[in-house]
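Exam revision sheet. Question 4 asks you to relate a sequence to its structure. Input first:
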Amino acid sequence: MDGRGLVRAVKDLGGERGRRAWRSAWRNRRVDAAGLAPRGAERARVPGLLTGTEPRPGGGVLRFTRSELLVRVTVGGAVFWGWDGAAPTPSYAVVGSGPEPDPRAVLEPDTDGGWRVVSERVTVAVSRHGAVEVRTPGGTVLRRDLPPRWWEPVGSAGSGGDAAGPGSGGGSDGGAGADGGCADGGGGTDRAAGTGSWAGGAGEAGGTGRGGGGGGTGRGGGASGQVGAAGAGEARGRGRGGGGGGRWLLRSEVAADARVFGLGGRAVGPRLRNGSYRLWNTDPKGGFGSGSGEEPLYITMPVQLVVADAGTHLVFHDNSWDGRVVLREGEEGAGSGADRPGSCELRMEGGPLRCWVLVGPPGRVLQGWSGLTGGAAVPPEWALGYQHARWGFGSAAEVRRIVAGYAEHGLPLSALHLDIDHYDGHRVFTVDRERFPDLPGLARELGNSGVRLVSIVDPAVKAGDPVHDSGLAVGAHGAFVRDAAGREVRGEVWPGECAYPDFTDPAVRRWWGGLYGERLAQGFAGVWHDMNEPVSFAPFGDRTLPRSARHVLDGAGGDHREAHNVYALAMARAGWEGLVRLRPAERPFLFSRSGWAGMQRYGGTWSGDVESSWDGLRASLALVLGLGLCGVPYSGPDVGGFWGSPSPELYLRWLQLGSYLPLFRTHSAIWAGRREPWEFGEETTRTARAVLAERERLRPYFVTLAHLARRTGAPYVRPLWWGAPEDRALRDCEDAFLLGDALLVAPVLECGSDRRAVRLPRGRWYDTATGRAYEGPGQILLDAPADRIPVLARAGSLLPVRVADGSVGLEAWAPARGRTGGGLVIRDPGPGFEEGEVERYVVRWDGDAVVVEDEAGERVEGVVLRGL
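Answer key, C-alpha cells:
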C-alpha cells in the first residue's frame, strides 16, 4: 500500500460503508489465506532439444525433451501454436471450434535442424531449441518468439526430473533466462470438471493443481451468429486447453521500426511505448487521464497489433490469467550500425501458453480476427445517435425536465440513461417507486418523442434480496461465486453486502438473462453493464473477488485468477442471450464497462470514469482507437468526463470529438457538474446544436460503418496509417483518425488552440468547412475555431447522409482529375438481425462533370456533389 492508498484507507473508515468495506477486505484476505496454498519451491523448465515430429493437418506436433508444441495453419491464414498440449479450444475468445486446418499447409524440414509450415500467406518456422518465427511468404521475419520458460511447483506433473534448474538458459536460440519474479503461484486443486457440483471443501486448499497454473482459458461459447447462439466446442468435463502447471515467461522480438498497438483499453495509447502493461481488468477508483500511471483500466486483452515496414501482424495469447507485458521499442542503427529489435516480454501467472497470429494488411488482419472471435454486434439505429446520462437524475420529474430541455433548445436526443439512483436502494432489477411511480408510462411518453430509456445493470446482488433468493435456487449450489470451502463469497458494493453471480456457469447465465424481462417490462430499450470487473469495495488490496474464489468455468472448474478477466465477457453473453430470447425480433443494445477478447459479439464499451481534463480528453481518443484495433469497434467516452466540471471550452472540444465516435454519450458523476449543453451558456448551446445536427446528418454513414464492422472487422474509427501502414509518419500520429474510408477527423486536444497541424495520408483531401483541396502525404495547418474542428473528406468518396425530409441521401466528393472513387452504402434494415443490402457506387469524371453510377452503370440522380 502506497501513501495515497493509506490515506484512502483511513478516510474510508469514516462511514458505515467504509467500515463494511474494511471488514469485506479483511474477510477476502482470510479467504485467500485459506484457499491459496503459499508458493513453495519451484523448478524452472525450458523445452530442451527437438526430439521428433508428428505431421498433422495444417502443421503438426514438435516434441522436445521437456515439452511439445502444436503448430497449425488454418484456412484463411490464421496461425495457432500451443505448448504442453494446449489446444485452440475450449476458449472464451474463439468462436465455435475455431477455423479448420489448411490442408495445403504441411510440416517440413527447415535449416539447422528446425522445421517449418509453409502456407500461402505465412510461414511458421520452429528451431531445434523451440524458438518460433512468423515469416512473410517472402521470408521476412515479422515476429520471433524465443523458447519459453515455465516455473512449476516441485513435484507437479509438469516438472519432471529432467527439468532445467532455476536460471538455466534456453539453448542457442537465446534462452529465456529470467528471474521468476511473477506474483502468486500456488493454489488449491480444481473443482470437479463437467459436473457443476461442488467437490470437497476447505480441505481442497492445500493442493497444488491449478494453483501453479495448469489449464487453459475456458470455453465461454459465444455468438457465432447474430442472435448470440452458443458456439460449438463448449468445455464439458475436459481440460481447459491443456498446458503445464506453472507460471511462464515468453520473450519475443519484432522489427526495429515496429510500433505496437492494442492490449485492450489503454489511456496511454494508441501507440504503446516502452513500459509495463498489466493484464488484469481493474476499476481505478477515481478519474483517469492519459498519464503514464493510469493503467491498467477496465478492459485488458493480450492482443497486440504490430505495424512495421515488413508488414502488419496481430498476436493473441489466449490466456485469461493475470499477467504483464513489458514492451521496448527497437532502434535502427545509424549508418552501418546494427539494428536493435523491438522486444516484448509476456509473463503469466498460470494457464496455457497458446497463441494466435494473423498477418497481412490491417484490413485483412482485422477481418481474420473478426472471423476468429466473432463478428461485432450491430447496434440498433437509434443507438448511433446522441445519448445523455447522469448519475443523479433522481426522479421522473427530473428526467422529463432534461428531455424537455433538449426539445426546447432544438437539440436532438436519441436516448436517456438511468444510473443506479433509479433503483430501490441501489438494488439491481428494482425501481424506486416513490421517485419513479410509473416507469413504463414514462418510457412510453419519452418513446413517443423519439427518446429511448437505457438502464444500468450491475452484477452484484444484495444479500437477502428477492433476486438473491431466486439465485439460490439455481442448480445444486446456487448461482453465486463461492470460496474453496463452499461458502458464498460476499463483497461490499452500492447496495451493501452483495453476492456475485458466477456467469461462467451456463445455468447461471440463463437465469440471469431471464431477469432482463423485468427491465423490458419497465420500458427500457437497452442496458449498460457497470462495475463488472467485478468490483468489491476495499480500502486496501485488490478491489475485486478473492483470487481463490471458485468458478464453474463452463464445466472445467477453476478459481478467480482464471475467471476474473472473462467475468464481464460472460456477463455480457448472459445479458445478450437473455435479451434475444425475450425479444427475438430486435437487436439488443448492450455495452459494458469491462470485457475481454471477443466482447464485440455482444455489444460495445465506453471509457468508464475518465476525468474531466484535457488529459482525459486525450485518453478518450486513445481508448477508442486501441479498442478498435483489438476488434471492439463500438465504443466512446463519457463526453465532458465522468469526474469534475469541465470548462465550456473543454466540454465543447469533447462534444466535437464525441460526435465522430461510435458511442456518442455524455455522462457524469452525481457530484460532478452538469452536462446539458444549455448549462454552459447560449454560445455553447448554439455550437452544440450544430455539432448534434452534423451527427444526425451523418448517422446513415455510421449505420453503414456498423454493418461493415460486422462483416469485415474494420473499426468505425481507424488510425491514420490504416490504408498505408508503411508510412512511418502516419504510424506515429495519434491525435487524428479516419472515420471509415471517407473522413479524416482532427480533434482539438489542447487548451486554447484555434489552429492545428494535420498530417494527411496520400491522396487529395477536402476541408469540409471551406471546400479547399490539399494533397497528401504531408502536413498542413488548418483553422480550428471554437465552433468546429478540422474534418476532411477523401477525394472521390461517397457518403450516405440524412437529408431534410429524414430520408437517406448521397453526398460525393469530386475525385482528382484522371481518377475515380466510390463508396458503399448499407441502409438500416430495421430493428431485427437482417444483414442489409450493400449498395456500391462509383464516382468519376465525365468530361467536365462528376457523375455517380450504381453497380449496373446507371447514373444516380439527386447526389450532392462537393469539391468541384
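Marking note for examiners. The CA atoms of residues 393 and 399 lie 6 Å apart.
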